[in-house]
Design brief:
Blueprint: H1 2-22, E1 40-43, E2 48-51
Antiparallel strand pairs: 1-2
């Protein structure tokens, strides 16, 4: 009984730390340009603003 209680207490203690560690890259993978100058559009391949052709 003591071992089972200790295992549950350890799991409950570590759960928040593991949840925070998993989310540390949130938002870093899918970043986009906030805005580009008039006449340009954002190109995800080069990660920069390129002139639009019309």
């Amino acid at each position: 009984m003591k071992t089972k209680t200790l295992a549950v207490a350890l799991a409950l203690t570590l759960a928040p730390a593991l949840a925070l560690a998993e989310g540390c890259n949130y938002g870093k993978i899918e970043q986009q340009a906030m805005s580009c100058a008039a006449g340009t559009t954002y190109d995800a391949g080069t990660k920069s603003c390129l002139p639009t052709t019309s």
